[in-house]
Write a structure and sequence with these properties.
The chain is mainly beta. About 10% of the residues lie in helices and about 45% in strands. The strands form three sheets. Strands 1, 2, 3, 4, 5, 12, 13 and 14 form an eight-stranded antiparallel beta sheet that branches.
Length: about 210
């Protein structure tokens, strides 16, 4: 499975990359505790922050500093790397600042509505221990300057829907001596696993489901 291959790769990276001596020990207690869990609750927070093109037209570009946030709560069957039950999620509105043309000297575009970077519509099991997220991006109608400072050109709004993959890291990784990497690191309080990619910071906080 993809997740298993990914964990093996992470283990090899940990073994190869120099790590301070005090962090080299594998925490077998943590690995055994989490590997014995059946159902794990995950509280997942995704925070986006990056320069982003907010114009939907294929022949127009307008950059902005965009922030967004989504919160996901789900139950995860660890032995099968799949959902247990129906996940819930909360979308927050995107924030757009410092709108500008791709050439800083050019007149900035004008948005005629709200840009929504990442609206989560649904979650289902994906391949190899990953989630498949159905995501929608909304581009508002806009006006962009032709030839940098010339007459404004109208660009129609558009909506783009696409699937996105999100790998759920196993809590067994708490027992691993992970390197300081954006691929995966343990939070300072030792309660969460953090992954950074493509402007997103994903924080996974697992809690064992109490035995019935």
């Amino acid at each position: 499975m993809k997740l298993l291959r990914w964990m093996i790769v992470m283990f090899l990276v940990c073994a190869w990359r120099p790590i301070p001596a005090q962090d080299q020990q594998i925490d077998m207690e943590a690995m055994m505790r989490w590997s014995s869990a059946d159902i794990v609750r995950y509280h997942i927070v995704g925070v986006y922050q990056a320069q982003t093109n907010v114009i939907g037209g294929s022949n127009a570009i307008g950059y902005a500093d965009v922030t967004d946030r989504v919160v996901i709560d789900l139950k995860w069957k660890l032995s099968e790397s799949k959902l247990a039950g129906t996940p819930t999620f909360l979308n927050e509105k995107s924030a757009v600042k410092n709108l500008r043309d791709y050439e800083p000297k050019c007149r900035p575009p004008v948005l005629k509505g709200e840009y929504e970077h990442w609206e989560l519509l649904g979650i289902k099991d994906g391949l190899g221990g990953a989630l498949e997220l159905q995501v929608q991006t909304t581009y508002p109608a806009a006006e962009v300057a032709q030839f940098c400072t010339g007459k404004n050109k109208s660009v129609p709004g558009s909506v783009k829907k696409q699937p996105e993959e999100l790998v759920v890291p196993s809590p067994v990784m708490f027992g691993m001596p992970l390197p300081d990497s954006d691929n995966l690191r343990i939070s300072k309080d030792k309660k969460s696993l953090i992954h950074k990619e493509g402007g997103w910071t994903w924080t996974f906080t697992p809690t064992p489901e109490p035995a019935k």
